Amino acid sequence: MYAAIKHLHLTAVALSVLLLVLRFIWLQRSSDMLQKKWVKIVPHAIDTVLLLSAATLCVLIAQYPFVHGWITEKFIAVIIYIFMGFVALKIGKTKRTQWIGFVGAIFWLAVIGKLAVLKQPFLL
User: Fold this and answer.
1) Taking 70 as the threshold, does the pLDDT of residue 124 lie above it?
2) Number of folded domains in the chain?
3) Which of 28, 17, 26 is nearest to 94 (CA)?
């Protein structure tokens, strides 16, 4: 069961990041694709699967935020990643702000990946 949930989680991560990048490219090009109904729905569905699979993995490995340092840092990094993606795609009014949000999101994604692989906290 662990392997199946982990693969589901990693697939959701890949799809989520792919859609972030794709939506950012479309935003930068002022593409009409951003107005498609599926583009407004699918990322939320994938992110829901991503968060539910993450919670399931936490239970399966008995590692919980605010109990174990690495998972606490990962949880905080995910919140920052979401915020930076929000800056890149929604609240960034200028191209510069959007790019700062996008680069920030990618940076925090790398931090999340490193925490997931090493399971060693940087700060806590």
Assistant:
1) no
2) 2
3) 28
